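Researcher: Quick one. two chains, 812 residues in total.
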Amino acid sequence: MLSWHITLATMSLTARVSLAVATLLLIGGVFVSFAAFTYGRDAAREAYDRLLLGAANDVAASISVQDGKPLVDLPTSAFELLALAPDDRIAYRVIGTDGETLTGYDAIAVPSKRSKSNVQFYDGDFIGEAARFVSVSRRFSERDLNGTVLIVVGQTLLARNALALDITRNALAALTVSGAAMLLLAGLVVRSALKPLDRIGEVFARRDPHDLTPMDPAVPREAAVMVSALNDFMARLDRQMGSMRNLISDTAHQLRTPVAALRAQADLAADETDEADRRVIVERIHQRSVSLGRLLDQMLSRALVVHRSDSVRREIVDLRDVALEVFESEDHHLLAPWRDVNLVIGDVQILVLADEHSLGEATKNLLHNALKHGKGTVQIGVDVQGDKGCLWVQDEGVGPSESIRNALGDRFTRSAASKGDSAGLGLSIAKSVAEAFSGKLHLSESDDSKFRTTLALPIAGGKA
Amino acid sequence: MRLSNLLALSVMLFGYMFMPVLAQEMTRQFGSVEPTRSLIIRSTTDISVFGSVVEAFLDTQPGLAITYEQWGSNDLFELSLSECREDVPGADLIISSGVHQMVKLVNEACALTHRSVQTSGMQSVLRWRDQLWGITREPAVMVYNRALVPSFEVPQSRFDLLDLLRPSLSRYAGRVATYDIERSGLGYLFAFSDSREATTFGALLESFGRTGVVATCCSAEIIEGVAEGTYLIAYNVLGSYARSLSRNDDRIGIVLPQDYTLVLSRALMVPKQARNSADATRFLDFLLSPLGQAELRRVLLWSPLLDDEGESVSETSLRPIGLSPSLLVSLDKQKREQFIKRWRSSFP
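Model:
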C-alpha cells in the first residue's frame, strides 16, 4: 500500500499522462466497441432483413389463383436471393385464406401479434436453430378467392452474425490502430512538452553548489512558478548566508580589539601587586566586559533582526503596540533611572506590515542611543506622516556626530567598536529593520533643537 | 424410467409397422471378417461402380466393416427424412445423386457438421454449410446408337435434337428415351435444372410429347435400350454410367450437349444421428484425398468426359448443379406438383 503510494507520487509525468490517455482510450474503447457491436448487429440485421423481405415479396408475387385456390409458383430467384447468405438454412411457409398451409414447413410459427402493416419481422426458431422471419400478407379480391394469403420467409442467423462480427471487428481494428497511434502521439507530445523541465534539471545538475545566482526565468509559464520560487529561495539563502558571513566577520572584527584590551587589562591585573591599583584595573575590566556584553547583545540583535526580516512572515503590526511595549519594558529605568521618558501616542491605530519583534529591537536601540548619547527628556512617539507610519524617538541633544551619520549604513563602525561604544551599531540595526520592511530611517533636528530618529514604514491596509 | 423406455420402444416399433415400405435395392458387406467398427453407407450409386472405392478406403482402415446399401434416390430421401425427424439412427453416411433432396435434408438440420483440410479446399459450389459435399463430377449427356444414328445426324446440342424430332414423320419419333421424373429423383433434378437453365426446355417438352418420347426408369436400362437399338437416342442420362458401358460396348456413342451441359456432383452427408460419424467423416476425407480422387476417376465418377477426352465441351457451357439452398424450390410441394403436372401433360 505504502509502496504503491510512493510509486504513485514519484511516477513520471509522461507515465501519468500516458496512463490517463490510456485509461481514457480504454473507457472510450469499451464504449465504442459496444457501439460498434450494436451498429454492426443493426446493420447486418437491416441488410439481411431486406434480403428476406425481397424474397418474401418475390414469393408473394408468384401466387396466382387457379380454380379458386391460391397457387404458389415458388420462384427460384427468391431462393437465390436468400442463398446470398450462403450457409443459412431457409424456412418458408405459405398459408392460404382459410389458414391451411399451402406449401412449405408447417412448423414455422406465424407472428404472434397482429400488425397493421402487411410486413412484419420477427425472431423465431427453425428446427433447432434461431432464425429471423418476415411475414408478408397478400390480399386477394377475386371472384372465386377473397382473403389474405400469408407468406412467411425465414433464415437462420449465420450470415447475419458473421457480418455483424465482421463490421465490429473492422471497427475494433481501426479503433485499436488509432488508439495506439493516439497513445504514441500523446507520449511524444508529453515528452516534448516536458523537455523544459529536463533542461531545468540539467542546469541545476551542472550548477556549482555555491552558485546561488538566479536561474534564467525564460521557461514555460507552468515551470516559471517553480523556477521563480526556486530563485526566491536561493536569493533568501544567499542573503542569509551573506548575513551569516557578515555576522561572523563582524563579530571577529569587532570582538578582537575589546577582547585584546580585556586580556591586556587582565595581564596588568595579574602583574599588579598594589591592591588599590589592581582594584582600579578590575573596575576597568568590569566596565570593559559590560561594554563588550552590550556590543555582543547588539550584534546578535542585529543579526537576529536581519535574519528575521528575511525568514519571518510579515504581519500587521500596530506601531503603538511596539512603542508601548518598549516603553513598558522599562529598560530605561535600569539604564538611566534619572532620565524622563514619555510616551506620545494617539488613539488611532497605525498599522504597518512588519515583524513586531524586529521593530521592538530597533526601537529599543534607538531608545538606548537617546538615553546614552542624548540629553534631556526622551520621548517615544507614533504618528502618521503622509502615507507613512512613523515610530520615533526624540531627545533634546544634538544627535550623533557627522562621522557616525556618514558611516550609517555601513555594517559596523570600527571607531564605535574600538571605543566599546555602539551608537553606530544601534542606528545600523534600526536602519536595517526599516529597510527590511520597505521603510526608511530618518535623522532630523527640529527647530526647537530637538533630535529625532524616525522609523518610517508604509502604512498597511486601511487605518481603522 | 425403464417402463417409459419400453413404452417409447413399442411406440417406435408400432410406428415402423405402418411406415410405407421402403427397401434398398441391394446390400453388400465389405471389410474385415471380425470388425471392431462398422459403418453403414446408403447410396444411390451402384455397388458395382462404387464397390472398388469402398474397398480402397477399407485398405486404409483395418478393423472396419462397411455395409453398403444401394437405394433409389426417392426412397432414400424419404427414409432419411423420417429417420431424421424421429431421431432414429440409420445410415452413418448418405450419398445420393438426388442432390436437391440432400439439400432439403440439410435444410431440415439433419446433417452433422464436419470441417477438415480436405473439405475446406473444396470449391464453394461443391459444399454447403460444411454439412453437404459434392464428391463426384458427372455430366448429363445424350447417348445414341452408333449403328442406327448416322454421324451427320448425331445431335450436338438440344437444338439438334429438336431439329431431329421436328419432321412429322421423323424416324426418331417414339425412339428417344429419358428418365421418368416421377420415379427417378435424378431425372426430376435434371429436368428441373433444364427448366431453370434455358427456354429450350419448353420446346423439348412439347416435342417430346408430340413425338411420344419414352420416359422410363434408370440409367442402366435406358442405356441398355440404346445399345440394343430399342431407342436411338437417350436424353439427359448420367455420363458416368454411359461412359462405363461404352467402354465395353462400341454400339454406344456419347454427346455432351454443346448449348449447355449439366454437371452433377453426388452429394454426401453424415446424418446427425449417425452412430459412427468418425469413420463416416474419415471416408469423406478419403474421397477428397488424392488417393480417393484417383479411385473416383478410375470408376468414372469423376468423369473423364469433362477433361481429358477429345469431345469435351467448352468450360463456359458447363452448368454444375451447385449445392445451394435454391435447390429447395424443386422440392416445394406446389412447385413439384405443378412441374409434374406440366410433365405429365406432355407424356400422356
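Chain B touches chain A at residues 106-109, 124, 128-130, 196, 324-326, 328-329, 332-335, 338 (CB under 8 Å).
Researcher: Thanks, that's what I needed.
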